[in-house]
Amino acid sequence: MENACMHDTGEFLMKIIKIVNNNIVTSLDEQNREIIVMGRGLGFGRKPGMTIDDGKVEKVFRLNSAGENQKLVDIIQDIPLEHIKAADQIIEYAKSMLGEKLKETIYLSLIDHIDGAIERYENQIQFANPLLWEIKQYYPSEFKVGVQSLNILKKMLGIELPVDEAAFIALHFITAEYDTKMDVTFDIPRLIDDIIAIVESEFSIKINKESIHYERFITHLKFFAARVLQAKQMPDDDDFLFRNMIRDQYKESYACAQKIRQHLGECYGVEISEEEVVYLTVHIKRVTMHVD
To answer: What is the domain count for the chain?
Structure first.
């Protein structure tokens, strides 16, 4: 059975492969790639092989693999259309604001999360987010997306979720940006907290959280944390001269970096390469140089 065809006018017509529910079907696009097509009533009273009514199509999902497509089908088949549309609008907003290429798994995780959050809201169940402060502090752009997500949900579905939920939503976008697993994403803010505390303690300073130097330090730490927690850190190279120079010129910062290395090994079970320690030393030196 053919799944797509060209009309006499040259217009491409999608045909139904599988009916997921009354509002969602699967088909193939012009490149013969599997797609998930969504729209109110798209699958109602229809059968595989029938042409999809373009006028009812509201969204087409194209994921890179058949496995990801099937996961998305499994997730959305029992989720109300309005919840999926709200999650999709949130994702589109996030793409426009974050300016990053988000991993397509964001569709799987966020649609499922939004549906669960709505269910908790309806059952008057609220979860406090233990990382609320850290997410606001270290990921302000993603947190703003989370806050706007609450506005989108209020506008589209008439529900008011607490600010803790904005932080939970932000975590999904952080995960999609840094290509990490959710448990790693949860650990990153804690790890950054620990590093900041060690630096301030070792140098007996209070870092200005409003300074550009702090902002740059945090940017480095976010990528540093994502690398070490996933065992993807920078390997040691053969530039002994550079490493020796950093150790000699920035003795206090290097000693601080070594304390951080020891702490992360003890508390997070990770081994930090000398290359990572050297670059961390440089960033510690920069941020501690600019303290009032």
So the answer is: 3
Residue 105, both tokens? 């798994």
**195 and 274 share a domain?**
yes
Reading the block at residue 131, the tokens are: 């990382």
34 burial class (0-12, 13-18, 19+ CB within 10 angstroms)? buried
Per-residue tens of pLDDT for the chain, all 292 residues: 234 443 443 456 789 999 999 999 999 888 888 899 999 999 999 999 999 988 899 999 988 777 888 899 999 999 999 999 999 999 999 999 997 678 888 999 999 999 999 999 999 998 899 999 999 999 999 999 999 999 999 999 999 999 999 999 999 999 999 888 899 999 999 999 999 999 999 999 999 988 899 999 999 999 999 999 998 866 666 667 777 888 889 999 999 999 999 999 999 999 999 889 999 999 999 999 877 6
The verdict on residue 19 lying in a domain is: yes
Range of the domain at 204: 184-289
**Proportion of the chain in helix, strand, coil states, percent, rounded to 5:** 60, 10, 30
Residue closest to 158 by CA, chosen among 214, 103, 86, 104: 86
**What secondary structure letter does DSSP report for 41?**
T
- Do 148 and 89 reside in the same domain of the chain? yes
Distance, CA of 49 to CA of 25 (rounded, Å): 11
